[in-house]
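User: Predict the complex.
Assistant: Input components as received:
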Amino acid sequence: MSVEVQVKRQSAPAIRARKGGVPIVALTAYSALTARLVDAVADLILVGDSLAMVEHGLPSTLGATLDMMILHGASVVRGSARAQVVVDLPFGSYEESPAVAFRNAARLMAETGCGAVKLEGGARMAETIGFLTGRGIPVMAHVGLTPQAVMSFGGFKTQGRERAEWEAIERDAQAVAEAGAYAVVLEGVVEPLAARITETLDIPTIGIGASATCDGQILVLEDMLGLSPRVPRFVHRYGALADHAAEAIASYAQAVRDRSFPGPDNVYQPKN
Ligand code: KIV
């Protein structure tokens, strides 16, 4: 007799309940193949708009479109079973009004099967976060260094280096929590400020370039695997996949050129 084991996905309330507990493990993934690897260990998979740069070679995240996010989001949902899948609302799909944000977030949820959406911005997005969460869409917020605002920041700049900046960043984090976000990404924020926000906020903080005291951590998968050619200082490379891949590709090229591939095991023979 076979017993079917029902695997339950992590939900927004389950992630929310992790505040102050065992750190939340989060990574990005953009495809079913990588989602399967990440799903084996992570609590949360983010289909980040960083895919515009990492997967599509664009210069910033500003080129990500809703259609791109849906295509990759649906693939990641199909490749995973346990982790919560969160999909980024891309630049231009939610800032105009809460109603526009709802329409696009609802499309993301319906067409990918994801468990939540993420959007960038603090106090200025509070009304939109309240509008979405009040209508059944779990929202993860993202404050500090928000890459969609790279043109306004004048580059990817660490936030809070000046003490005078702290109050506004803390206000942003508080505003998204009060508006109903179930978790917030703190990106590129000086360590003591990230620790202070984590201590005061009653929702989990997920750090990237922030602090080990955050309630969880997230990295871009290709960065931590050592596939990305350049990575920021806050990334630790846990692998050297680009080197392994380059070696494998070179071996293949050599084998094709000297006709050792395909070998006897890689070809088909007639039955008789
Ligand atoms: O787009 C992304 O990958 C992100 C993470 C870096 C947090 O937003």
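The two ends are 41 Å apart (CA to CA).
Let me know if you want any component modeled separately.
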